[in-house]
Specification:
mainly alpha, Growth Hormone, Chain: A, globular
Length: 427
Amino acid sequence: MLFNSRFYYPVFTILFLDFGLTVAQFSILNAVWAATIVLTEVPSGALADIIGRKRLLVFATFVMIFEIGIISFIPKTNPSIIFIVFLINRVLSGLAEAAASGADEAIAYDSLAAKGDADQWGRVLEVLMRFQSIGFILAMSIGAAIYDPVLLGKMCQFLGLAVTLSQETTMRFPLYLTFILAVFASITTLRMEEPGSGSSASGFETKQIRQAFGLTLKAGLWILKTPFALSVILFGMLFDGIIRMIITLSSQYYRMIELPESTFGIIGSFVAMLGLIIPKMAKKIAENRPPSDALWITAGLTTAGLVAMSFFWSYAGLIPALITFSAMYFTGFFVSFHINQITSSDQRATVLSFKGLSYNISYGVLGILYALLLRIKKQGIDSEHVENAVFVDTFSWFPITFLIWFFILLIICLLWLNRPSSLSQEE
């Protein structure tokens, strides 16, 4: 919760622009962030399985402190220097995400298993998602509020404080609060205890690097030879990539359905509140129903939400958006539940890192393809009216793409899972 609930998320894009960066530079920085995760996701998971999950988590929080710190206190002087500093921030942020991904779930699951409570993993996921939702609600609400100098000025007047605040000052407040969370996240990881596996290594040596690459290859081959694991990851990759693209474009969608911009932060908090409700439902489904039921429920929600969003109903279009976003919570729960159940402890973090890698590849490829589609449709015409019209016109690409790939994966996975060797392996 401390690592992921960042106060600058509701103002993420405009924060970069207010520092003097251009939209093109912002796009480049996000591409660098995604590329860093893709390149380091799996190796970091293998290292976590070898030198210890706690060490990777401590490293991730230390990197978070540094990457938030350098942009929190950088003066707004030379635009070129600002871009370089933000470039370093994006690389370090991607590195921290990759280091924490997989290692966090692995140390938690193995800690339960060490106490004989592995069957409580669904309950842990439920509680985790609730706390994360609370964290996001606070971050979205507070982060957007403290970024606004007008709102803070009115609050100061109400409290009788003679303080004049400018955007130059308030734009750093969400970063300062996130920096404090990074310090507390670091303290939390330092207090963790490794449950035994993966903690025997006493140092970082060349031999361990070879072991990491060996474990990466072993985990990758295990996924390819385990049809159920590969199926879960592939479907998670499809759901996560499509829905995360929709979330990225959500502010533009809200504008198209005529919602006032002042409500965006409130909507973000409301979406986070879904995480207080859905995990309990997902836990009951995962523990009492076959995996196929979880797949069809998530696919139904995603399809219904995406298709309905394509109509861009004024105001009422918020309902299908919420349905689509709810599918993201179901996806995260179901994938984590089933992958951790079937993965052995010695390669758990590595397998989970392959999952994270596939998600980021999916998101990155979809982003590039959608950008190319927009460019073709716009045909070099740059105006807000044309851009809005193209956005509405191309949105149907998402449900169509989802349905095509869903049924392709469904056919492939059914054929694979029904092979005699696969059935005997699952038994």
